[in-house]
Amino acid sequence: MTDTARGILGELATRRPEAIVDVVEARGELSARVAAEALVDVCTLLRDDPAFAFDFLMDVTAVDYLGSVPRFEVVYHLYSSSRNHRLRLKVRVPEDAPRVPSVTSVWRGANWLERETYDMYGIRFDGHPNLTRIYLYPEFEGHPLRKDYPKERRQPLVTRADVEPAQQRRLEERQRERYGRWT
To answer: What's the rounded Cα separation, in Å, for the pair 148 and 145?
Structure first.
């Protein structure tokens, strides 16, 4: 283990021993598995403490380990711009209740990233200010990045008749502006 890894992972495990399940350095990459109930506390420590200074949440995603218990793992990629360090946090999530606390109170940029993970994997982020689909339409059924998603399945289609009249009028006005008058 490098000095940097020993410093970051060791300090984190020392300060939050009840929250850190496991720490690993592999190929120069640092990872820490965190208990879900302590996620926000650990993220706040990593952001605010000058020893860590992880000021940037680069990504939030998930991994589907179909057949494993727990099935999902939510992954957070952090970066310290002042120290040029990276850290990966992982939280295991069960299939029957795929939920973790939202970290939007720590990093505002988590808003989009958590919505994306919810949309693609169906993992709920408790305390998120607007946990709605971000890529797929509301009538879409399922979560397409789950390994058991039936890729040949037909989805319900939204037609013009399904759109609210006001939205339909705005759409027609935009089309007229763009393409000119049709009649």
So the answer is: 8
